[in-house]
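Blinded run. Sample ID left blank on purpose so nobody reads anything into the name before looking at the predicted structure. Input follows.
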Amino acid sequence: MNGFFKTVPLMLIVIGTGCNSLPEGQPPEGTIVEQYNQPERYSPKQAVNQMLTSITTRCEPVILAGAYVLTVKKDFKAERNEENRLPDQLAAELVKMKSIRTMNLFPDAKYDWVLKSTITHGDSGVSGLGELVWEMKFISHLDGKVYWQEKLIVQEKSMKDSRGKNETHIVERKRDKGGAEKKLP
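Blinded prediction complete.
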């Protein structure tokens, strides 16, 4: 009870001084903080990063899972198989963050969630660059309810860098006997 009588006056003092710390006069005119406008088209790296940010901040099951790792089946569809490296990289990042565990290796494995990706070709538009429309969904296997979905436009021509190598790829790593990580070719 003694702590109560010390805490309440201290809280009242802090609340009272908060309002007195603002300067006198009118607030500044105009825009104080510029609004961030998301790009219409993303490079493959930006698209994977945007999808990762979106699923980890807007997907309720992923947010609420905490220490529990969700069992997920990957369902990726694309017109060309090499385009599936975008959702594969996203899934690899989620596995690395210990948010999900994928169950595609065993056909009879039990899973609770489906990570669905669909990549289709859009029109080349004004820029003349080919576009991919990448849509992802996080779906409950039990009732089919969609808990999260995102759709982005990815610049297809930027999938190769200036040296002609793929811009996005999953880096495979192996540990040697000493525990040091080595990149595989």
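Unblinding after everyone has recorded impressions. The radius of gyration is 24 Å.
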